[in-house]
Amino acid sequence: MSGNGSFGLVGVMGWPIAQSRSPILHNYWIDKYKLNGRYVPLGVQPDRLADAVRGLRALGFRGCNVTMPHKQDIMAMLDSVDDTARRMGAVNCVIIGDDGKMSGTNNDGRGYYSSLIEVSPSFKPASGPIAILGAGGASRAVIVALLEEGATEIRLINRTFERAKSIADEFSGVVKALPWERRADAIDDVILLTNATNQGMTGKPPLEISLAKLPKSTLVSDLIYVPPETPFLKAARERGNVTVNGLGMLLHQARPAFKAWFGVMPDITPDLRATIQATFT
Question: Among 5, 13, 18, 225, which is 20 to 30 Å from 179 by CA?
């Protein structure tokens, strides 16, 4: 529906939703490219999700982003879901075609990988073992993205071992589940270490892990972007590791969604980053 010249109405659906930076991000691009449209927050309680999805079509939306807690439940309410979203078990972007059909995809993994390459262009997932801390929905997105880019060994480390093992069994052969107690030893030869837990987020306790055995050459990433530098990333940076926070993932996952809705692939500029970062203080 991006090419018909009509007003482009899009948004982000979640509960709660006030914390989302997506309206600031997408409206920045709408204004920059002088497009006729707006991106709005859509606070939808879980028991009203089906009504809200039907309302998107009725109100003429071009689509929406989807955030917690709706990423899984919305899948059954769409006309189609692509293979990437099915592998991740979640949808974060809905596109409504000119025929009214609603399709779902998930750009989180692509956004994550793009954020790594932006900071470390030479990074190759196939060049060594990778360790991921946490086995939630964000972790699945990271795993799928790294597998699609050729990763050959991913160590999934989670407080609840059974949850990690369930994901490892699904991606058998490449993903290996390890108990939380082994986290400090399991990173001694990795090329990438990623925190996919909420530990270190503003209002949460810091992630507890010793980096003593971590190679200085390891790329260290955190999916959190509030605060911009978690204690985990700070510790890694101070010992010489290159670090990547979650802001790049947020920005890069938004680009293909914006392109699908408005027909323009937007740029990520220093001014955009400063605009988003200013909302954290």
Answer: 225
